[in-house]
Design brief:
The protein is mainly β and about 325 residues long. About 0% of the residues lie in helices and about 55% in strands. It has no helices and 35 strands. Strand 15 (about 120-125) and strand 16 (about 130-135) form a beta hairpin. The two termini are about 20 Å apart.
């Protein structure tokens, strides 16, 4: 967490305080997958520095953005700004391993492929163009790039676990589309889905299904479709609201749904108890046997939102979401 003392900010890991800075960008704090490494950006004398394991990088920048660890925790992919333009860095803690071409704006943050070989990011110029880049970081080589319209699109790149496939949102000809890329076969398709809710698309670990939220007559639907036929839709709902879906290791879909003013978890075809006034997106355990999520119990709804309740952590077996335990 970030603490403040004597006009300085610093990151505390366990009980150990880090180096003090004029400011620490909380949103940049990243933890490696094994939990052993921590990175963030800190500001000193008007410049921003990347900090890895409490060791400050050699170079300073005008501004910084998202930081993401490679799957093995060895490298960082980062957004950085200098001389009025944004670029992407791959950083090993001492030096820049890769630096992209600079553009006026950075859109989606850089991400590593599940095998750590590729970095994918999006740069461009707001109101004019957005370019998605695929970089082989082991060879520092551009593999693919695609130019799209500027439509204010958010969302993420969603990969299969072997990185053979990726799906993401883009704009072509003034329309919002989904881009399906098979990186092994070097095939690309684009699909226009007018009712999809932006930023909710997710690809299953085996790359055979997609899931997303859709809007219909003021209600929300959960849609699951095969990769090969995205227009073939398995719809669930309608609900008053749902959270973005997530896939488990065995391709089970989980999400939260609001019905009659109460939230409940839905895992596959099983529904949990309607006990909560507010929830967050569920996560699967690594073996896919359990799901967990924060939820608010009690409280009431007014114009400010849900107030007066108590947040609890909820854990349940995937096959028995109704038998959840709270802690």
């Amino acid at each position: 967490y970030v603490a403040w003392k004597g006009g300085k900010q610093f990151v505390v890991v366990g009980e150990k305080p880090g180096k003090p800075y004029d400011a620490v960008w909380t949103d940049t704090i990243a933890v490696s997958r094994d939990g052993q490494r921590i990175a963030y950006s800190g500001k000193r004398e008007g410049k921003w520095y990347f900090v890895l394991d409490d060791r400050e990088g050699r170079r300073s920048y005008e501004n910084t953005g998202s930081i993401i660890f490679s799957p093995d925790g060895r490298l960082l992919s980062c957004e950085a700004k200098d001389k009025g333009t944004w670029f992407i860095l791959v950083y090993d803690g001492d030096k820049e391993v890769y630096r992209s071409q600079a553009y006026r704006d950075s859109f989606r943050p850089p991400v590593f492929s599940p095998d750590g070989r590729l970095v994918v990011y999006e740069l461009g110029e707001r109101g004019k163009k957005r370019i998605v880049f695929f970089i082989d970081i082991t060879k520092r080589k551009l593999i693919k790039k695609r130019l799209y319209d500027e439509l204010g699109i958010a969302g993420k790149f969603s990969f299969s676990s072997d990185f053979s496939r990726v799906v993401y949102e883009a704009g072509i000809g003034g329309k919002f589309i989904l881009v399906f890329q098979d990186l092994v076969l070097d095939e690309e398709r684009t699909i226009h889905l007018p009712d999809i809710m932006q930023g909710t698309i997710v690809l299953s670990p085996n790359g055979e299904k997609i899931a997303y939220m859709a809007a219909k007559e003021g209600k929300h639907l959960l849609i699951v479709s095969p990769w090969e036929s995205p227009l073939q839709r398995n719809e669930k709902g309608p609900y008053e609201a749902i959270t973005p879906p997530v896939f488990g290791p065995d391709m089970t879909v989980a999400y939260q749904a609001l019905k009659e003013g109460k939230w409940r978890s839905i895992v596959g075809d099983r529904e949990g108890a309607a006990n909560y006034h507010a929830v967050d997106v569920p996560v699967f355990s690594p073996d896919g046997a359990k799901i967990a999520y924060p939820a608010m119990k009690g409280g009431h709804q007014d114009r400010r939102g849900v107030i007066g309740g108590k947040w609890v952590m909820v854990v349940s077996d995937v096959g028995k979401p109704a038998a959840a335990k709270e802690g």
